[in-house]
Design goal:
The protein is built from 21 helices and 13 strands. With 559 residues, it is α/β, with parallel strands linked by helices. The chain has a domain of 64 residues: Gyrase A, domain 2, CATH 3.30.1360.70. The chain has a four-stranded parallel sheet. A three-stranded antiparallel sheet has the order 1-3-2, covered by helices on one side. The protein is globular, with a radius of gyration of 28 Å. The N terminus is likely disordered. It binds one RNA strand of 77 nucleotides through helix 2, helix 6, strand 7, strand 8 and helix 13.
RNA sequence: GCCCCCGUAGCUCACCUGGAUAGAGCAUCUGCCUUCUAAGCAGAGGGUAGCAGGUUCGAGUCCUGCCGGGGGUACCA
């Protein structure tokens, strides 16, 4: 590799290769000389030695093949703190997305089924991506693509007509429908004719049969009320609730477009798009009986979204098990030659399992999100009564902590990994958890309350000099980069990891001790020093608060 | 069978897309509250990164094969 000819290029070349040494005593930044070895025909260590010899020894040094640089704490403080103080939670905002729209499909639960912890993953990741992209200047469009159409409603209708009772449905709609659904699958094993009935009833539903539509509407209304309650608890919102049924009257238009493009063929009585040349099974559009399928409605959804929003990108936050489905559907869009074919992204994630098994509504092997929230709330309330008995808003705070714990259980792990749901882990509020971040936020807030004065920007930065403060400042500085990376990779976990580190570094600073082992307090009778530290404290609180907001986790002031 | 994902400490996970001695948390053990919130902090033990090759100055990270787990594979979503 040759060196870039101009100096600006050289800067970029070096800047792009800077690293943060794992062992921080080596320096704050490091340039590994390996990349120059080939073009300069010298050993990396030799290059590092020669380069360092020409630089200010107070700041640069060679260590083996690395050129390490040390920055002055005060200088970093003077650069970073006024910036955060001035921008507040807008720190890290960007304009890369200015004027661009990003459609995000998330949560999308199936109606007539309870909202289980399994549904939380898409909801949490999608909502977080919504806020992350918004921070980068995009205009996000949150879409809840409710699973409110399909053969399963044939099953529900059959089950309800056979065993359902209106009074029971009114009492506890979702649980009741859930029981019926489980019962249907159990009975179906013994009596396969039920499957055929279900298929027929779904076809009737698509053809507008009044009885089928009546029941379906009933199920849907109860479900929406139920889901809305859950979303309110979670603080999750959508811009559009356009479920699969929304596209019913657009299906024929979609079929026309595909037919005109010559993509539709008939195979075993079904209408399909042949995808064999691309190493995929055919994409099924219509069953032999003429009823639509998931993919048909998905295609209609894509057209509609593009026509309505003219998105610059469309994300589908849906589990990895549907990977092939999206590959097929996206391929069909590509074959149509749509210009936005490469703007469609399946943001996939792993299963939430229970006792190493996939949670299945059918088998009744599912944990209700509400039960988890309630249990976590109880535990949080108990801890508060124990540790902070005078706390006002106990209930509200307990709920915040419960949500922090539950949401972080999902967002604290890289999305492609399967998560094994464990009560023990969700109910753990110590260590790398949501409540740990919330606790740190409460602690920071408490300091600011106690300080009781406005935070001043004009401080003596020379008073900020400890290694702990340096770590904090460098980490604060990386926030914007972290948000960017999270967006690029559709991975809120980067922010979660970042915040854990921020909290850990702060807590170390908070509890640091002097040479005699005595606690060095942030608020002391030395006014100038306290003022400088409080500017740092306020900055940490601001970034932590904003980071939690990006994850959709509430940030209590006290707990 | 074919395709995709995963495999790192007893357990749950990181390693910022190839860099220095693989890091955290949980659990276990030891310290630290006359309280700026101990839901915290400091410390100890704990590793053949599934296995075997390959690529190169350098591999947990890239490639190939194998083993183990999960998912998908035409009328479910």
């Amino acid at each position: 590799m040759a060196l870039p000819p101009d100096v600006a290029g050289l800067e970029g070349f070096i800047y792009g290769r800077l690293e943060v040494p794992r062992d921080r005593t080596m320096g704050d930044f490091a340039f590994p000389a390996f990349s120059l070895a080939a073009s300069l025909k010298e050993k990396p260590a030799e290059i590092a030695r020669k380069v360092a010899a020409q630089l200010d020894p107070a700041q640069f040094s060679a260590a083996g093949p690395y050129i390490n640089a040390v920055l002055s704490v005060s200088e970093i403080a003077a650069a970073v703190l006024p910036l955060i103080h001035g921008q507040g939670t807008a720190f890290g905002n960007q304009s890369v997305g200015e004027g661009k729209k990003i459609a995000i499909d998330y949560s999308s639960p199936n109606i007539a089924k309870p909202f289980g912890v399994g549904h939380l993953r898409s909801t949490a990741i999608g909502h977080s991506l919504y806020r992350i992209y918004e921070k980068l200047g995009y205009r996000p469009i949150g879409i809840n693509h409710l699973g409110d159409w399909g053969t399963q409603f044939g099953k529900m209708i059959v089950a309800y007509r056979k065993w359902g009772r209106d009074d029971q449905l009114a009492k506890e709609p979702i649980t009741y429908l859930y029981d019926l659904y489980v019962r249907f699958h159990a009975e179906e094993e013994k009596d396969p004719s039920l499957s055929e009935d279900a298929r027929l009833w779904f076809k009737k539903l698509e053809d507008g049969d009044p009885e089928a539509v009546r029941l379906w509407t009933l199920f849907k209304e109860y479900s929406l009320t139920e889901f809305q309650r859950i979303y309110d608890i979670l603080g999750i919102t959508f811009d559009h609730y356009t479920g699969e049924s929304f596209y019913n009257d657009r299906i024929e238009a979609v079929m026309d477009i595909l037919r005109r493009a010559g993509l539709v063929t008939e195979s075993q009585g079904a209408q399909v798009v042949e995808l064999e040349p691309y190493g995929m099974p055919a994409c099924l559009l219509k069953k032999a009986d003429g009823a639509t399928l998931y993919a048909t409605r998905e295609l209609a959804g894509i057209f509609y979204r593009y026509e309505t929003f003219h998105f610059d990108r469309a994300l589908y936050v849906v589990g990895a098990s549907q990977q092939e489905h999206f590959k097929q559907v996206f391929k069909v869009i590509e074959l149509l030659g749509e210009p936005y074919a490469d703007k469609l992204v399946h943001v996939e994630f792993g299963w939430i399992k229970f006792k190493d098994q996939a949670m299945s509504t059918r088998k009744g092997n599912i944990i209700f999100l509400e039960d988890v929230i309630a249990t976590a709330e109880e535990k949080a309330a108990k801890i508060i009564r124990d540790k902070n008995p005078g706390l006002p808003n106990l209930e509200a705070t307990a709920r915040m902590i419960a949500l922090g714990a539950i949401l972080f259980a999902d967002l604290g792990v890289k999305k492609h990994k399967d998560v094994n749901f464990s009560w023990e882990e969700v109910l753990n509020f110590e260590g790398e958890t949501g409540p740990y971040l919330q606790y740190t936020h409460a602690r920071l807030s408490s300091l600011i309350r106690r300080y009781g004065r406005p935070i001043a920007e004009a401080v003596d930065f020379g008073l900020i000099s400890s290694p702990e403060e340096k770590e904090l400042l460098l980490h604060l500085y990386r926030f914007g980069q972290t948000v960017e990376t999270a967006a690029e990779r559709y991975e809120p976990n980067y922010i979660a990891e970042y915040l854990l580190e921020l909290a850990a570094v702060f807590n170390r600073f908070y509890q640091r001790k002097d040479a005699e082992g005595k606690l060095v307090k942030i608020i002391s009778d030395r006014e100038d020093e306290t003022g400088a530290r409080m500017l740092l404290v306020a900055a940490v609180r601001s970034v932590l608060n904003e980071g939690l907001r990006l994850l959709g986790i509430p940030a209590p002031e006290e707990m």
